[in-house]
Design brief:
The chain has a 6-stranded antiparallel beta barrel with strand order 12-15-14-13-16-17. Strands 3-2-1-4-7 form a 5-stranded parallel β-sheet, sandwiched between helices. Helix content is 26%, strand content 28%. It has 377 residues and is an alpha/beta fold.
C-alpha cells in the first residue's frame, strides 16, 4: 500500500475521504491548508472551511481515525494563484472561476508538490466528487462522479496528466447520502456538519468587499446603455460591480427585463440586452488545456465534437470545437465553440468544460461572445 496525503478541510466529505484512504490500508496523512487570513478578522467566517474552527474539526477527525495531522501554510501560493487572478478578472470585466484555479494551482499544484517532497506521499486525496479512470495504456482520465448532483469535474478540468496521475478521489463512486452514512457509522465529529457554499476568501459573500480591501477598488459611476444605443439609460456604480447575465440591482426600468450583456472596463460602460440578446451559439475559449495533454483527434481541420458546460451543474450542450483562424486572434490555446442549440450568458472568464460522455476532455476560459468574433473576422 502507498502513503497518501489527504487534504482535510474540516467538512464531512474530506473527513470520509480520509477514512476511506485509511480503511483501504494506505498510510494516510491528514493536512489542513491555511490559505488566507479572512476568518481571523470576520466573525461570520468562523465556521467556514478555511477557519481555525475548521482546522480543529479536521484535527479531531484525524485523531478519531488514528492518522497523523499537519497544518500547511499555502497563503502565498493561494494569493498568487487564486486571489489575485480573481480580483484581476473582475477589474477586467470578466467573471472568474476561483475554484478551478484553486484545484489546478494549489491543491494539485503546490500541495501535491509538497506532499511528494516533504511527506514522501505518492498521491493527494480530496473530498471531490469525481472519478479517476486509468485506461489499458496507463493514461489517467477524469470522469464524472456517480452522484450527478454533486459532480465537481467542472472545477477539475485543468488537471494535467502528471497531476491526475497522483490524484485520488475516494468519493467518486458514492452519493452524498452514502458519504453521510459512512461518517455516522464511524461517529465522525463532522458527520452532520452543513456544507460550506461561499467563496472562502470573500467576507459576507460579496466579492465587491474583496475588491475594495484587496485591490483598492473604488466605485466610479459610469453610463448604462441599452443595446447598441449611444444615449445612456442610467448610471452604474462601477463596472467591476456587475457581471454578465446580472438582472437585479441595475436601477433602470425599460418596460421589459434587461440583463448585463457586456462590460467595458476601459470606458467604464455597462451594456444591457434582452434575455434573447444574451443567447449565442458561438463563443471562443482561451487558456485551454486537455487532460490527456492533447485535443481529441478529429476532422482534417482539427475540429471535434464534445458536450460543453459553461457553468457548474448546467446542462451539457452538444457542440463542435474547432481551432481559431488567423482572423480570430486571442491568447494561447484558442478554440471556437459552436453549439447545436443556444447557450445563455456565456460570460468572459467563466470556465467552459468539454466532455465526451462522462469523461472530461478539457476546457478553457470563455474569451469573447459571437458578436465580437464576427467583428474581428
Amino acid at each position: 500500500m502507498s502513503r497518501i496525503l489527504v487534504a482535510m478541510s474540516g467538512g464531512v466529505d474530506s473527513s470520509v475521504a480520509a477514512a476511506l484512504v485509511a480503511r483501504a490500508g494506505h498510510d494516510a496523512v491528514g493536512v489542513w491548508m491555511r490559505l488566507h487570513d479572512v476568518a481571523d478578522s470576520y466573525s461570520e467566517f468562523k465556521k467556514s472551511c478555511c477557519s481555525l474552527d475548521a482546522a480543529d474539526d479536521a484535527r479531531r477527525v484525524a485523531a478519531q481515525l488514528g492518522i497523523p495531522f499537519y497544518v500547511m501554510n499555502l497563503e502565498r501560493e493561494f494569493d498568487a494563484g487564486v486571489i489575485q487572478p480573481f480580483l484581476d478578472a473582475y477589474l477586467d470585466g470578466r467573471t472568474p472561476s476561483p475554484c478551478v484555479d484553486c484545484n489546478t494551482y494549489v491543491k494539485f499544484g503546490a500541495l501535491l508538490g509538497r506532499a511528494r517532497h516533504l511527506y514522501d506521499c505518492e498521491a493527494v486525496a480530496t473530498g471531490h466528487y469525481a472519478r479517476r479512470v486509468v485506461d489499458a495504456g496507463g493514461n489517467a482520465h477524469l470522469a464524472r462522479a456517480v452522484d450527478a448532483e454533486k459532480d465537481q469535474t467542472y472545477f477539475l478540468y485543468g488537471l494535467r496528466q502528471d497531476q491526475l496521475e497522483h490524484a485520488r478521489f475516494p468519493l467518486g463512486e458514492l452519493t452524498k447520502p452514502e458519504v453521510r452514512a459512512i461518517a455516522r457509522e464511524l461517529d465522525l465529529v463532522t458527520a452532520d456538519k452543513p456544507e460550506s457554499q461561499e467563496i472562502c476568501f470573500v467576507p459576507g459573500g460579496d466579492y465587491r468587499d474583496a475588491l475594495r480591501e484587496r485591490a483598492g477598488w473604488q466605485e466610479t459611476p459610469g453610463p448604462i446603455v441599452d443595446g447598441v444605443a449611444v444615449e445612456p439609460v442610467g448610471e452604474h456604480r462601477g463596472a467591476a460591480a456587475y457581471t454578465v447575465g446580472q438582472r437585479k440591482g441595475l436601477g433602470v426600468a425599460l418596460g421589459a427585463p434587461r440583463y448585463v450583456s457586456r462590460i467595458d472596463p476601459l470606458s467604464n460602460t455597462i451594456q444591457l440586452g434582452r434575455r434573447e440578446d444574451l443567447e449565442t451559439m458561438t463563443f471562443a475559449i482561451e487558456r485551454s488545456s486537455f487532460v490527456t495533454g492533447a485535443p481529441p483527434s478529429g476532422d482534417v481541420d482539427g475540429s471535434f465534437r464534445a458536450d460543453v458546460r459553461i457553468r457548474h451543474r448546467a446542462t451539457p450542450i452538444a457542440a463542435t470545437i474547432r481551432p481559431a483562424t488567423d482572423a480570430e486572434p486571442a491568447r494561447g490555446g484558442h478554440w471556437i465553440v459552436e453549439t447545436d442549440v443556444p447557450v445563455w450568458a456565456a460570460a468572459p472568464g467563466q470556465a467552459a468544460v468539454l466532455y465526451d460522455g462522462d469523461v472530461v476532455i478539457g476546457g478553457g476560459r470563455i474569451s469573447r461572445p459571437a458578436a465580437e468574433l464576427r467583428a474581428s473576422a
